[in-house]
Design a protein that fits this description.
single chain, alpha+beta, 9-stranded mixed β-sheet
Amino acid sequence: MAAHYDVLIVGGGIAGLSLAAALADHCTVALVEAEQELAYHTSSRSARQLIPSYGPPVVQELTMRTLELIAARDDGQPVPVLTPRSFLLVGTEALVAAGASGHMVPVTPDQALELCPALVPGSFEAAGLDTGSYGCDAPLLLAGHRQAALAAGAEIITGARVHSAQRLGTGWQVGAGTEAFAATVVVNAAGAWADELAVISGVEKLGLQPYRRTAAIAAVGRSLPAGSPMVAAADDSYYFRPDGGDVLISPSETVPSGPEDAQPRPGDVENLVALLNRVTSLGITGVRRAWTGLRTEAADGIPVAGFDAEAAGFYWLAGQGGYGFQTSAAMAELAAGQILAHLGGRPGPESRTARALAATRWSVRR
């Protein structure tokens, strides 16, 4: 016999966990994750920085709302999720101007060097600073969502890869691992596997594309001062930020991939270290560990949150790209509202934000 829930969420990363926490007080929820542990893939491989100036306008809007919601959660907590950490963009005047937004102010190269003395003078022409950016304790945020969901009665099942799903009557029958589930709504929060889940479910895929992004923790001869910003090249050739006495570094690559447990490729980190040792005085002496995550995007580069155009009760929560953590709370809030309205048979008018994220928008498919 299949256990019945109002909502079955497929995917135990930041998207699925934040939605489970938002829904579980209001309806019955189960979350299934293919891996043996939650947040195994992209959500455990985050740069852990929330940047209001990063991304298209709707992403920036979601980021600001997410910061509000997490700050409210942090109020009165002994250990906060958010820690102020500015974001500094450097490069040519044209590229910095193209990458700046209303949340970023221009600073001179001399001011940039004061903020981050590790930059080599003359290695960039212009800079922009986002002082509303925050470091994010990703494990703490994930754990908080998990605890909130469980406390409200949600079921969370790991090691349960979906192998079958079909629409029957007014709901869905789903097989995941050794379990069977019946649900009124299925939420596709499967990250890089979102299109694969759609195919299993008999739903037309959106053409979501995973991209590789590698990062590493590097030992340095010269640690960054306390309060140093995260620094990114406007040409997407690197970013780095303090990580205790070490430095987190990334080549910022955007290389297409299939859905997989991605790993660094030979040369990715070595070439980055050589570059950073030319444009900074960090003096990288070694790499402690390195990893690669997958950032999955729709054709227009905007996250997807909304019911499928054809498959009743199939909700897409996918394509977050590199914006997963910084949009997570706001997207969960929006998705929970839409799903609860659907369950109650009272879908209301869509907001401008909901229309921008909708799975039915013309620009979403490849």
